[in-house]
């Protein structure tokens, strides 16, 4: 027979079970690659981590740094990381080569890409024929520039000499007048423009793409491995909320975001703020399974139409819930 004391204990336990808060969602661990130097990829990731936006959205984001773009993409191909930010055409090429990755979110607009020169005779890419440009040929930005060149009847590497150089070295090559122009992107574009009042931007990525495709495109998307998507399907919406929180933080707390990236990538104070304020650095995180699916597919198609890539990827290259 239940005693009064036993009945009270049972009642107390039942009450505790009813009023106890539901356990918090267990964070999903996700490994992402970042570049060890100032880049579009890195700065958003650093803001997300600094503000704890991963944990807030149920993600335990493990960040791995790479000093070279080739190693950065190799980490995605081998599964060393679950995701990286990548150019749409890099994703297309890797998918065609059998790397099991999908575009899941958009990340940054093409505004950040800039071709800079101090030569008053060079007013357009066509004026670079027979001249030289410093550019990172392994970057997604170079792929956009190459497609634009083909649309103008110019083949980079044939009609225009290309000197291999990542953004910091491209800046140095231009300063030393060893090249006639430099292709770079934010935040290095802002740093380069500060070097010499004679420097001018003769082409931006968004202008180049609109002239080719008659629409806006994307410089970067978030590429995830299929094994991660199968293993952690609930991570997609959490990661979407996490990066959109990062985007809002940058828009509404620009001074704080500038302070964060100045500390993490040793960027001079004010450069990040200047690039964002000038509209040259635009983060915009959207799901690819809505309206942007057509935009990204059209970017794949343009690369094939202009002979830059041999074929379209399969439709699985763009994530669909």
Characteristics of this structure?
321 residues; alpha/beta; five-stranded mixed sheet; three-stranded antiparallel sheet; 14 helices; globular
Question: What's the gist of this structure?
Answer:
45% of the residues lie in helices and 19% in strands. It has 321 residues and is α/β, with parallel strands linked by helices.
Structural summary, described in words:
By secondary structure, this protein is an alpha/beta fold. It has 14 helices and 10 strands. A 5-stranded mixed β-sheet has the order 7-6-8-5-9. Strands 3-10-4 form a 3-stranded antiparallel β-sheet. Strands 1-2 form a two-stranded parallel sheet. Strand 6 (132-135), helix 6 (140-151) and strand 7 form a beta-alpha-beta unit. Helix 6 (140-151) packs across helix 9. The longest helix has 18 residues, at 235-252. Residues 1-23 have low confidence and may be disordered.
Structural class: alpha/beta
Strand content: 15-25%
Write the H/E string, N to C. HEHHEHEHEEEHEHEHEHEHHHHH
Give unreliable regions as ranges. Answer: 1-23
Question: Radius of gyration from the CA trace?
Answer: 23 Å
* Straight-line N-to-C gap: 55 Å
| Number of DSSP strand runs | 10
Give the helix tally: 14
The overall pLDDT average reads 90
The backbone outline, from C-alpha atoms, is globular
- Main sheet attributes: strand count, strand direction, barrel closure: 5 strands, mixed
How is the largest sheet built, in terms of strand order? 7-6-8-5-9
Q: What percent of residues adopt helix (DSSP H or I)?
A: 40-55%
């Amino acid at each position: 027979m239940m005693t009064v004391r036993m009945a009270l204990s049972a009642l107390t336990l039942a009450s505790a079970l009813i009023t106890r808060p539901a356990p918090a969602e267990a964070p999903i661990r996700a490994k992402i690659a970042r570049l060890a130097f100032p880049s579009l990829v890195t700065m958003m990731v650093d803001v997300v981590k600094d503000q704890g936006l991963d944990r807030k959205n149920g993600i335990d984001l493990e960040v791995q740094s790479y000093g070279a773009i080739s190693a950065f993409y190799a980490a995605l191909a081998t599964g060393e990381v679950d995701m990286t930010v990548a150019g749409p055409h890099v994703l297309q090429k890797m998918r065609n080569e059998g790397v099991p990755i999908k575009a899941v979110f958009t990340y940054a607009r093409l505004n950040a890409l800039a071709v800079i020169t101090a030569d008053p005779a060079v007013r357009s890419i066509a004026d670079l024929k027979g001249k030289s440009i410093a550019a990172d040929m392994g970057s997604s930005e170079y792929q956009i520039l190459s497609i634009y060149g083909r649309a103008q009847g110019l083949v980079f590497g044939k009609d225009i000499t290309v000197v291999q150089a990542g953004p910091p070295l491209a800046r140095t090559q231009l300063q030393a007048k060893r090249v006639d122009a430099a292709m770079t992107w934010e935040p290095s574009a802002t740093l380069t423009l500060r070097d010499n009042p004679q420097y001018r931007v003769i082409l931006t990525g968004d202008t180049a793409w609109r002239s080719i495709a008659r629409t806006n495109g994307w410089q970067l998307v978030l590429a995830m491995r299929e094994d991660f998507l199968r293993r952690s399907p609930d991570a997609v919406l959490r990661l979407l909320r996490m990066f959109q929180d990062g985007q809002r933080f940058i828009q509404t707390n620009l001074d704080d975001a500038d302070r964060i990236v100045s500390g993490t990538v040793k960027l001079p104070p004010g450069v990040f703020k200047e690039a964002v304020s000038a509209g040259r650095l635009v983060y915009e995180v959207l799901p690819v399974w809505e309206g942007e699916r057509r935009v990204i597919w059209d970017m794949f198609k343009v690369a094939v139409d202009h002979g830059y890539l041999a074929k379209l990827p399969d439709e699985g290259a763009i994530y669909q819930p």
